[in-house]
Automatic annotation (TrEMBL):
Protein name: Winged helix DNA-binding domain-containing protein
Pfam family, one: AlkZ-like
Alphabetic keyword roster: DNA-binding
UniProt-listed InterPro entries: AlkZ-like (IPR009351)
Organism: Streptomyces luteosporeus
Gene Ontology MF terms in the entry: DNA binding
Keyword DNA-binding attached: yes
Length: 389
């Protein structure tokens, strides 16, 4: 009886990536929720990313329709999740996400806030709990409220914390900043109506919908299964990086699933049992994905779809990826929007006429979607700066 591990090649990994994340003409989604489900969660740190990630994968994207769906809490929620980062996720996944990522983020932020309160002589755990209850009541009375409105309404919330006093990097921030983050990460608050244009990251706060209570180990295992379904096969380091968990938590969560070990071109990996057999390679297609898109941010090790030589141009110093051009499951270039609205791109490799035409078609699709709207990525990369210079 053979004990050899099932093998999944880089070509097969790209085929899965293309089928799940980069649907070509005739296979695109009809809604933002479909898009979010296909990539598990949409990065929301940069407000423009959500719209552009959805539009790239939709058949007939309309800005106003995407806007409406993004604020339909029966379908989608904004949550602080993996790596303390803001995401838009399918509401059905929210209970697991809260238990697996949100509450640990909240506990860490609360611990840090208590330390800062003590250092600044402002209060203790009892004071913080009382202030948190008062903050939630203030939101309940107003239906929605901004951070500034709450800082005015709740005594003590506007106090300034001195962080790293006496250091060259000393800074100040209000108690409201950390407390509201913790309350949201803990599932009490959610981002409500946006204040400002579509690229604004200023939102009012609203009470979060009640979610089922899921034990943390069960929630982590559920999230691993979702990740393997959307991004698998992948490696243990990939999963640890994507979730932000400890190595022990990651191993336990993986062991709690029915994932099986497989052999990838660059070493061991894991996949769901139903994802072992080869998949048909989809018809090659092009895509223009925005900065911080969930696809290129889904793995730590990206060699199966990105030539490492191109990473310095596409990533900033903190590891945030800029806008990318894709063909047939690979990153083949980058793109940017100039201040006058022109979409420009640069290819890293020579493509044939058919491939270049497909890329131009996506440029035109993006231009149609954007119309007269302008945006600048929150994190600028060397290629983005070069293309817009």
């Amino acid at each position: 009886m053979s004990t050899a591990l099932p093998r999944i090649t880089d070509a097969q990994r790209r085929a899965r990536l293309a089928r799940r994340h980069l649907p070509g003409p005739g296979r695109r989604a009809a809604s933002v929720r479909e898009v979010a489900e296909s990539v598990l969660a949409l990065h929301a740190t940069d407000p423009a990313t959500i719209y552009l990630s959805a539009a790239a994968r939709m058949d007939n994207p309309q800005h106003e329709a995407i806007e409406r769906e993004l604020y339909d809490r029966d379908a989608l929620l904004r949550m602080t999740a993996m790596r303390c980062t803001l995401f838009v996720i399918p509401t059905t996944l929210a209970p697991a996400m809260l238990a697996a990522c949100g509450r640990p983020n909240a506990a860490a932020r609360t611990k840090g806030l208590l330390r800062q309160l003590e250092q600044n002589g402002y209060g203790d755990a009892a004071w913080l709990e009382k202030t948190g209850r008062a903050t939630l009541e203030a939101v309940r009375e107003r239906s929605e409220a901004t951070t500034a409105e709450l800082a005015t309404a709740v005594p003590g919330l506007d106090r300034q914390l001195v962080v790293s006093p006496g250091k060259p990097y000393e800074s100040r921030r209000s108690i409201a900043t950390d407390l509201l983050f913790a309350l949201a990460a803990d599932g009490h608050l959610t981002r409500g109506t946006r204040r400002g244009g579509w690229t604004s990251n200023q939102h009012a706060w609203a009470l979060a919908p009640a979610l089922d209570d899921v034990p943390a180990p069960q929630a982590r295992a559920e999230l691993v299964r979702h990740w393997l379904s959307a991004f698998g096969p992948g490696t243990l380091p990939d999963l640890k990086w994507w979730t932000g968990w400890t190595l022990t938590e990651t191993r336990k969560a993986l062991a709690a699933t029915d994932a099986v070990e497989v052999r990838l071109d660059d070493g061991p990996g894991y996949a769901l049992p139903q994802d072992i057999e080869p998949v048909d390679t989809p018809e090659p297609s092009a895509a223009l994905l925005p900065a911080l898109d969930p696809t290129p941010m889904g793995w730590r090790d990206r060699g199966f779809y990105l030539d490492p030589a191109h990473s310095p141009a596409l990533f900033d110093r903190m590891g945030n990826i800029g806008p990318t051009v894709w063909w047939d499951g690979r990153i083949v270039g980058g793109w940017a929007q100039r201040p006058d609205g022109t979409i420009v791109h640069r290819l890293f490799t020579d493509l044939g006429r058919e491939e270049c035409t497909a890329v131009e078609t996506e440029v035109n699709r993006l231009n149609t979607f954007l119309g007269d709207r302008r945006f600048v990525p929150a994190y600028r990369t060397p290629l983005d700066r070069d293309l817009t210079a």
